[in-house]
Structures are given as structure tokens and as C-alpha cells.
From TrEMBL:
<dbReference type="InterPro" id="IPR016032">
    <property type="entry name" value="Sig_transdc_resp-reg_C-effctor"/>
</dbReference>
<dbReference type="Pfam" id="PF00196">
    <property type="entry name" value="GerE"/>
</dbReference>
<feature type="modified residue" description="4-aspartylphosphate">
    <location>
        <position position="55"/>
    </location>
</feature>
<keyword id="KW-0804">Transcription</keyword>
<feature type="domain" description="HTH luxR-type">
    <location>
        <begin position="136"/>
        <end position="201"/>
    </location>
</feature>
<dbReference type="GO" id="GO:0003677">
    <property type="term" value="F:DNA binding"/>
</dbReference>
<keyword id="KW-0597">Phosphoprotein</keyword>
<feature type="domain" description="Response regulatory">
    <location>
        <begin position="6"/>
        <end position="120"/>
    </location>
</feature>
<dbReference type="InterPro" id="IPR000792">
    <property type="entry name" value="Tscrpt_reg_LuxR_C"/>
</dbReference>
<dbReference type="InterPro" id="IPR001789">
    <property type="entry name" value="Sig_transdc_resp-reg_receiver"/>
</dbReference>
<keyword id="KW-0238">DNA-binding</keyword>
<protein>
    <submittedName>
        <fullName>Two-component system response regulator</fullName>
    </submittedName>
</protein>
<dbReference type="GO" id="GO:0006355">
    <property type="term" value="P:regulation of DNA-templated transcription"/>
</dbReference>
<dbReference type="Pfam" id="PF00072">
    <property type="entry name" value="Response_reg"/>
</dbReference>
<dbReference type="InterPro" id="IPR036388">
    <property type="entry name" value="WH-like_DNA-bd_sf"/>
</dbReference>
<keyword id="KW-0902">Two-component regulatory system</keyword>
<keyword id="KW-0805">Transcription regulation</keyword>
Length: 202
């Protein structure tokens, strides 16, 4: 059974705080609602959160200010903003600040569900990329600075002779470094070594 993802909804309109949780619940999400962004911020210390759906204009902290606050506090959670007519420019500004999407009122139920599913998918892919990068970086952690130089040359598609010339060493020494690279990273082929190097951001 797939775990239900947790969506937090912020809206000062009681009708929205009633209707959105019902919609999300019947579509397989756990939901908590808040009247203000400040109320929501206290929630982060308590539970895991997968996505936030927030009105952009609210008493106190606005949706834009919330996006900036989460970013400043290094809290990684996708935020989808709901905007009334005339708020589009503000919503675009919020997306530039880090919001993942905005939806204009009135909106179809499917539009919100599509935005949430897209945000969760993008978040999962980003987290997977982060895990792969950390794993790759770990496998390269024991390389010497010179071995890293040789690896960068290989990633750039350069042949041994060119790498040797650029580093001021002999082609034979480059071959030794290549052998060391494969041994230290425990790979069986150059293609596997290239995949690790690229995943690590070299």
C-alpha cells in the first residue's frame, strides 16, 4: 500500500478550508489546514510535509513571503500558490522566488490535483538526483587532486596524450592514473566511471 502524502492548505477563506481538504482526501492525500502562514510555520517542527497549497493574499504573511521564508530557512517543500484575479504578476514573482506553480481562482479540481502531482513528482526526482550525487561524490572522495585532474580530462573526452600534455606528465603516467581511478572507485569499465563522474558533477 502506498503511503499517503501530506498536503498543507493555507487559506483565510473558511469555504476553501472546507472544500480543498475534502477534494484532496478523496484523492488519496492526508491534509491539514491553516488560516494563516504563521500558523503553518509552527507545523514544520512536528510532521513531514510533502507539499503546501497556499493562497497568495492573506492576513499577516503573504504567500510570497512564505515562499521566501521557507527558502531562507532551507526548508525544501514545494509550494503551489492560489491566486485571485489580478494577482498573476504577484504569483509570477513568487515563482521566481521558488514557488513551483500557481493556479488562478476559480479553478477546476483537476487543475489543482495535476499541479500537486507534478510538484510531488518533481520533488521525488530531485531527491533521487541528490541521493545519486552524494553516492557518486562518496565514491570519488578518496581520489588525489591529480587523479581528479585526469578524471576531468576523461570526462571531457580527451585522449591520454592530450591529458598528459595539459598536465605536464607522460601518457604512461596517465594510464597509471586511469588504472588507479578504476580501482579506487571499484568500477569495471570506463563508461561506469564516466557515469559516476558526471553524477558527481565533474
Amino acid at each position: 500500500m502506498t503511503a499517503r502524502r501530506t498536503i498543507l492548505v493555507i487559506d483565510d477563506d473558511p469555504a476553501m478550508r472546507d472544500s480543498l481538504p475534502f477534494l484532496l482526501d478523496v484523492n488519496g492525500f492526508d491534509v491539514a489546514t491553516f488560516e494563516t502562514a504563521n500558523d503553518l510555520l509552527h507545523h514544520f517542527a512536528e510532521d513531514a510535509v510533502d507539499c503546501i497549497v497556499s493562497d497568495i493574499r492573506m492576513p499577516g504573511m503573504s504567500g510570497l513571503e512564505l515562499v521566501r521564508k521557507l527558502k531562507a530557512d532551507a526548508i525544501i517543500c514545494p509550494v503551489i500558490l492560489i491566486t485571485g484575479h489580478g494577482d498573476v504578476a504577484l504569483a509570477v514573482e513568487a515563482m521566481k522566488a521558488g514557488a513551483v506553480d500557481f493556479i488562478e481562482k476559480p479553478f477546476e479540481d483537476e487543475a489543482l490535483l495535476r499541479a500537486i502531482r507534478g510538484a510531488l513528482q518533481a520533488q521525488s526526482e530531485t531527491q533521487a538526483d541528490g541521493v545519486a550525487r552524494r553516492s557518486a561524490e562518496g565514491r570519488l572522495a578518496d581520489l588525489s587532486p591529480r587523479e581528479c585532474d585526469v578524471l576531468r580530462g576523461l570526462v571531457a573526452g580527451k585522449i591520454n596524450k592530450v591529458i598528459a600534455h595539459e598536465l605536464g606528465i607522460s601518457p604512461r603516467t596517465v594510464e597509471v592514473y586511469r588504472a588507479n581511478l578504476m580501482a579506487k572507485t571499484n568500477v569495471r569499465s570506463m563508461s561506469e566511471l564516466m557515469r559516476i563522474a558526471i553524477a558527481a558533477g565533474l
